[in-house]
Design a protein that fits this description.
Blueprint: H1 2-22, E1 25-27, E2 30-32, H2 40-50, H3 56-75, H4 91-97, H5 105-112, E3 120-122, E4 127-132, E5 140-146, E6 152-160, E7 164-173, E8 181-186, E9 192-198, E10 206-212, H6 214-218, H7 226-237, E11 241-243, E12 248-254, E13 258-266, E14 272-279, E15 285-293, E16 301-306, E17 317-323, E18 332-341, H8 366-372
Helix pairs in contact: 4-5
Amino acid sequence: MKITNQFLTLFVAQQGLSASAFAPIVVNNNVAFKNTALNYRVNESEQFQRENLTQPNDLQQLKNVANISKNNAAIEQPPKPEIGGTRKFDLADAKKARGPRNTGAVRGAFKSLAGSRSVKSIQGGNCLKTWNIMNDNIERVSVMINNEGVPLSASVEVWQGPTSAPMRLEVASDDGNTYPFSAVLETPSKHNSIAVRNTSPMEFPMGACVVADVEDANAGGNKQAGQGAVVQCLADNGESYQVHGDNGLESFQFENTVESIQVLLQTDGRPLHARVELIQGPNDNKQVVDIFSENGLDQPFFAVIDTPSMFDMSGGATVRVINTAPSTVFPLSAIVEPYMVSESYVTPSKPETKVDKSNNLFFLDCDDVEQLF
């Protein structure tokens, strides 16, 4: 019984302490809550104000700093990417976007297109991306492909109708960032589409950009402006070399001051079978393009190939054109000229060839014979 009374006394005392802790205190007929659980934060802030730990000016300064940081964040927001994918390759923009060393025109073009929606991502593992040409006045398009710096393998086709592919390209590059692919493909007639397939493994995605030659279409066609004017200028002013079929070969060497090379392959209307190789070093193929066209006159092959120099004393690059047609009755004409050069580029001069037209070119005269003995 004594133990029970002790427990009862302790319980009553505990209830009294709890009630006094949470009960309001009456001071001068005013009810004030002090150290209660519900008003702990309120009482703490009031205590800080009474002890002058916080001032209204400090709070105002904090608000001003917060507003300034918000305004700076709004100003420093990156610009929104360009919508519509209408930007095209521009040589002037490529020169501005390139690095101090010889990087090439195509790589500079991709840098100038950074932030826009013109470049579409294509996953590896034979994933396909198509571009439909809805305007029948478009006669050609430019196709550019790159990646983050891994081996590049892709297939590009021009579709005409449901089952016809009059032009096909197979592209392989040692480094899709240093050696990207760029070509201008003719799209005559109607109902054309461009199909780009990433034949690399699944881990190697790539970016593809297809831009129509709108400038030439607005100018009336016939290669008067835009990409068509570039192709026509090379065809008119470049030096043509004839390469016979059955693996006929022609090589073109360039110095390290040449940053990009333009290549034009065409025929007189016969099918075009060719391979273009970019070589830097002994048998070191940096980029290989296999070309097939049903009509090498209506659908020739024009490409811009970057030839970057890793150091100033590099030996330049060599472009090799191989006619892979099955017979010698399918020749092709190849025009390979510099496209973008550095400031230290010097135009090569051809040596003068002197021909001896004298009569005694191969035989000695009687006087010469007498002098010998």
